[in-house]
Amino acid sequence: MTRELAIGLKPVWLIGVGTLAGLIFIALFYLLLLVAHRRAAAAMLDILCNRLVMPVLTVAVILSTFSVGMTVNDELFGGRFFDRKMDALTSVVRFPMVGLRARDVEIDAGARDQIVALNVPDGELKQITLSSTEPLTIAVNKTTQEADILTHERFEILRQEPFSWSRPREATGPWSGEVSRLQVNSDNNVAATLHIFYETTVTV
pLDDT averaged over consecutive 10-residue blocks of the chain (204 residues)? Predict the structure, then answer.
């Protein structure tokens, strides 16, 4: 299976997991009705067999079967559909938490390693632009003394000359993983406003 095909099928797998959970809930609810109220169970079965509902159920069964089949293939037969299934399921919960963000942070005059929390999970940063009203030195996830300028862990922002980063296809460097914080030095002992515009996206 090619990498592109695997990436394209991951959302289908996630949808199949969701439909499987829905089918299990429907089956358990039907069994509960069958025990507690047979007439209600018969009415529910009539609804499920309705010609409008049955095609939807058929699609749900197909999607669920696909997800179960790919999971069994990976776990029992050493298939390599994709390895981070639990991470993929967890990422669905983060959909409401991602998107575009804009922040203005006041940097103190003479600041040394002033912390600006970002708390972006591993791999979720899609792009970021930083600009400032005054020159600043900024480090990613480290102090400005620890950070390496050659690996872009540390960089400078001049007045009205923004810094920008966008995630490439094969991302490396400090922006590609978790970005928990920035640490900021004031370069000319003047208070500044740091403008942060960034976009996050769920990784599957």
Answer: 66 86 93 89 88 89 88 71 64 77 94 94 92 95 88 88 90 90 92 95 74
Q: Which of 122, 132, 177 is nearest to 152 (CA)?
A: 177
Compute the half-sphere exposure of residue 202: CA atoms within 13 Å on the CB side of its CA.
15
Distance, CA of 11 to chain centre: 13
**Coil, helix or strand at residue 68:** helix
What span, in angstroms and rounded, lies between the C-alpha atoms of 146 and 156? 15
All residues at 6 or more sequence positions from 94 whose CB lies less than 8 Å from its CB, including other chains: 121, 124, 202
What is the pTM (predicted TM-score) of this model? 0.65
Q: Calculate ∠ Cα 11-122-196, nearest 5°.
A: 110
Residue type, 37: H
What residues pair up with 127 in beta bridges, in sequence order?
Answer: 166, 199
